[in-house]
TrEMBL record:
The chain crosses the membrane at residues 379-396, 417-443, 463-485, 492-514, 576-595, 615-632, 652-678, 699-722, 833-852, 858-876. InterPro entries: HCO3_transpt-like_TM_dom, HCO3_transpt_euk, PTrfase/Anion_transptr. It comes from Daubentonia madagascariensis (Aye-aye). This is Solute carrier family 4 member 11. Residues 341-893 form the Bicarbonate transporter-like transmembrane domain. SUPFAM superfamilies: Phoshotransferase/anion transport protein (SSF55804). Belongs to the anion exchanger (TC 2.A.31) family. Homodimer. One of its GO terms (biological process) is monoatomic ion homeostasis. The lineage of its organism: Eukaryota, Metazoa, Chordata, Craniata, Vertebrata. It is a multi-pass membrane protein. It holds the Pfam family HCO3_cotransp.
């Protein structure tokens, strides 16, 4: 025989969005035709085969009964369909000896695909009749335990045969089972479904199959009427390419001769349209009885009817609100968008206030309870908030000579978190004090020391000015400006934040090694300052020198307990401390990230994997805290600094400052407000991203005003400021999400089905953080600093999962043959991809140069550098890379 080359002929129509792909796989024998092949067996031209549909089914039934393989099965070509014809192998008619020499035999497989439009439940009355007919004679198999497709279909056919309402006396179930597949007589190894429908989501990033459901169509002459059977599997099953996570099987049986509106394809299209909604499939998974299953079908029909009337789907009817910062093609901003005064705040309150009671009941009361997920998420948030709070509280304690210590930092975190959880428009956003805020606090302390100002008063005025500017931004709807931020800009800032976490951990570990391993004592900056008075006559020189000294200090200061490494007898003990600290840090990272990724492993039950993944951070922190405290108790470990506050709540004397000092605080407050404005809106935009499927709406302007009010109170009482934290907020959303998995090219991808939009998790975590004041100094001081550094590395690493900038940088280290088939790889030349990545890296380096500079004023203005990225993206990059390629690489959804 001769081997032919596979070829594809494509004719496409314009059908964006979610479509249904109908696959018709049939075996066809090709007659020998010398005119259609060259001497080497290659095709020179193409032709379509037409055959009568009824005759085809009759011929196939006869061939299956008589075991004769001599039919040609093809379908009429549609002008708007995608047609794939794959020539697997061309062989001349072999002799009997040659046939016996080929153990598997060789046949031709004909595959065709075409688009099917989703049914309009408002205009097409037949859709309602199809569902009514199914409900009247429902054939539903719940909790099917079979694992193979054949066994599942046999169970469905037996259920169909045993139902008195579906009796077909002339129907041969064995013949019907055989017609579902492409098996040819004497060629049983080609065992594929003949006719199927699957949901396909067409996005800017490519085509994605909905792999959790499969609709199988079969037309047989012996059938007298149409039948539908639905089976729900207990566990997802892997049945091959594009069917790796199947939970639902819809089987549609119908006679070939029927009205065009009653064909098997039309009935299948009705049910396929219903199952194309990911939220509906999740509801069906939560049903327990056939009656609940039927009720869900009826409810979905109502939703689809309403959606057809509104021309939007139920899950995206508030898309303009949900994707406020979808911002891939933002509308040009006009002056009228920023007036009238407070318009955005009023709209936010009107949108969110009616849903306020549901924020406390979702997942707790009703059918879709998720109490366990609420508990695990609360524990995750508690540790994710408490440990950075302790770390930055210890830093603030040393930078401010105890004016802001660990106690005040925990108290401020608890109070601010409680207020935001209770009154915010988007309670999934988590507020934290961060490294840039610790930097500002340090700069304020240095200025106060150099100019002999009262720290609490100057700190309060800086915070008040910050709140004033934030309130102005909120009332004039300036959050609309954030719609100009592209995905690439967001990823640069997100990667910058991850780098700061890594740098903090590395600096802290370097100081531990410097003290314990090499036997050096780190000079205490504040002790030196106490021994040398301030020279008030040279304010400019002293300010410069003191700022340089302060800002060169580590973000996480050196251990404060007496070291033994400096003495000759303690050298070996000091080195043991350093090495153990490194192992504890890396162990915390390894265990936490391994458990976080455990949900993607095949081990244990899915619910156990989910719980372990949600509790990865608490388990890791507790495990290595116990290991360091009890397993190696004879080795000294670095603990965070703790000094009890003399007065936890003491209002600042804001009237004690001069007008000149208040004016100076205004400049610092303005720069600080820019940082708050960018961080708050950027993190909120990531939380409200359309792929998270949040349905309760956004509240950017109101949340910004609430943030100003919260920080005004914190400033007056000398508590550290807080704003929206990355990546804690997106991780909070992910912890509360129900996901559906799909497998593409050997990789597991997750699609969020819905998110429990609740206030209880952040509220509970804030209460637990407040109660942690009772755990000071012990047992919280049992948590060594290396565990905190491991936490920083964990946060940085988990935030890189969906960062395309990081993924494209990693491409530079891979062979081109190993590149993943992402949308930008398929649609953008590699040279342009690397240009774009290089330009992003340059912007990242620029941001790092300002944000991590030793010069104080460069550090303070890095929020302005963030804002400068907007004109860079809109004015500079299009001059280097074509706009069409930029739009692809800035696409909202990942691969």
């Amino acid at each position: 025989g001769r081997v032919g080359v596979g070829w594809v002929q494509v004719s496409t129509g314009d059908c964006p969005g979610l479509v249904l792909g109908a696959g018709d796989n049939s075996l066809a024998s090709l007659a020998e035709n010398a005119s259609t092949m060259s001497q080497n067996g290659y095709f020179e031209d193409s032709s379509y085969y037409k055959s009568d549909t009824d005759d085809t089914f009759e011929a196939r039934e006869e061939s299956l009964g008589d075991e004769v393989f001599d039919t040609v099965n093809s379908s009429i070509v549609s002008g708007e369909s995608i047609r794939f014809f794959v020539n697997v192998n061309l062989e001349m008619q072999p002799s009997q000896a040659e046939s016996e020499a080929l153990p598997g035999g060789c046949v031709l497989l004909h595959t065709s695909r075409k688009y099917l439009k989703l049914k309009n439940f408002k205009e097409e009355i037949r859709a309602h009749r199809d569902l009514d007919g199914f409900l009247a004679q429902a054939s539903i198999v719940l909790n099917e335990t079979a694992t193979s497709l054949d066994n599942v279909l046999r169970t469905m056919l037996r259920h169909f045969a045993q139902d008195p309402n579906n009796t077909e006396p002339d129907c041969n179930l064995d013949l019907l089972m055989a017609m579902l597949f492409t098996d040819a007589p004497m060629q049983g190894k080609v065992h594929l479904l003949s006719d199927t429908i699957q949901g396909v989501t067409a996005t800017v990033t490519g085509v994605r199959y909905q792999q959790s459901w499969l609709c199988i169509i079969c037309t047989m002459k012996a059938l007298q009427k149409r039948h539908v059977c639905i089976s729900r599997l207990v566990r997802p099953q892997n049945w091959g390419e594009n069917s790796c996570e199947v939970r639902f099987v819809i089987l549609v049986l119908a006679p070939p001769k029927t009205k065009s509106t009653k064909t098997a394809m039309e009935v299948a299209r009705t049910f396929a349209t219903m199952f194309s909604d990911i939220a509906f499939r999740q509801k069906l998974l939560e049903t327990r009885t056939e009656e609940e299953f039927k009720e869900a079908l009826v409810h979905q029909r109502q939703l689809l009817t309403m959606a057809s009337q509104c021309q939007v789907t139920p899950r995206t009817k508030d898309h303009s609100m949900v994707s406020f910062h979808g911002h891939r093609h933002p509308q040009p901003l006009k002056c009228k968008d920023f007036v009238p005064f407070g318009k955005g705040i009023w709209k936010d309150i009107a949108r969110r206030f009616p849903l306020y009671p549901l924020d406390f009941t979702d997942g707790i009361i009703g059918k879709n309870k998720a109490v366990g997920k609420h508990i695990t998420t609360t524990l995750f948030l508690y540790f994710a908030c408490l440990l950075p709070t302790i770390a930055f509280g210890s830093l603030n304690d040393e930078n401010t000579d105890g004016a802001i210590d660990v106690q005040k930092t925990i108290a401020g975190q608890s109070i601010g978190g409680l207020l935001y959880a209770l009154f915010s428009g988007q309670p999934l956003v988590i507020l934290l004090t961060t490294a840039p805020l610790a930097l500002y606090i340090q700069v304020i302390r240095v200025i106060c020391d150099d100019y002999n100002l009262d720290f609490n008063s100057f700190y309060a005025w800086t915070g008040l000015w910050n709140s004033f500017f934030l309130a102005l931004y909120a009332f004039f709807n300036l959050s609309l400006v954030m719609s100009l931020f592209k995905r690439s800009t967001e990823e640069i800032i997100a990667l910058f934040i991850s780098i700061t976490f890594v740098l903090d951990a590395v600096k802290g570990m370097a100081k531990i090694f410097w003290k314990y391993y090499y036997g050096h004592h780190v000079d205490d900056y504040h002790t030196k300052r106490a021994s040398s008075p301030v020279n008030l006559e040279g304010l400019g020189t002293s300010l410069n020198a003191s700022l340089h000294t302060a800002l060169n200090a580590s973000l996480l200061a050196s251990p404060t307990e007496p070291g033994t490494a400096g003495s000759p007898g303690g050298v070996h003990a000091g080195r043991a401390t350093a090495v153990l600290s490194l192992l504890i840090m890396l162990g915390t990272l390894w265990l936490g990230y391994t458990l976080y990724q455990f949900k993607k492993s095949p081990y244990l039950h899915s619910r156990v994997r989910e719980v372990l993944s949600d509790c990865a951070l608490p388990i890791s922190v507790l495990a290595f805290s116990l290991i360091s405290s009890y397993g190696f108790r004879e080795i000294e470990m670095s603990k965070f600094r703790y000094n009890p506050s003399e007065s936890l709540f003491e209002m600042a004397q804001i009237h004690s400052l001069s007008l000149r000092a208040i004016s100076s605080a205004m400049g610092l407050g303005f720069l600080l407000s820019m940082l708050f404005f960018i961080e708050q809106n950027l993190v909120a935009a990531l939380v409200n991203a359309p792929e998270n499927r949040l349905v309760k709406g956004t509240a950017y302007h109101w949340d910004l005003l609430l943030l100003a009010i919260i920080n005004m109170g914190l400033s007056l009482f000398g508590l550290p400021w807080i704003h929206a934290a990355y990546p804690h907020s997106p991780l909070h959303v992910r912890a509360l999400a129900l996901v559906e998995e799909r497998v593409e090219n050997g990789h597991i991808y997750e699609t969020i089905v819905n998110v429990k939009e609740t206030r209880l998790t952040s509220l509970g975590a804030s209460i637990l953080v407040g109660l942690s004041l009772l755990l000071l100094p012990t047992p919280l001081q049992w948590i060594p600093k290396p565990v905190l550094y491991g936490l920083f590395l964990y946060i940085a690493l988990t935030s890189l999962d969906d960062n395309q900038l990081f993924q494209r940088v990693a491409l530079l280290l891979k062979e081109q043959t190993s590149y993943p088939p992402t949308h930008y790889i398929r649609r953008v030349p590699q040279r342009k991809i690397h240009y774009f990545t290089g330009l992003q890296v340059l912007q990242l380096l620029l941001l790092c140069a300002f944000g991590m500079s030793s010069l104080p004023y460069m550090k303070m203005i890095f929020p302005l550098i963030m804002m400068a990225m907007i004109p860079i993206r809109y004015l500079l990059l299009p001059r280097i890379i074509e706009a069409k390629y930029l739009d692809v690489m800035d696409a909202e959804h990942g691969p």
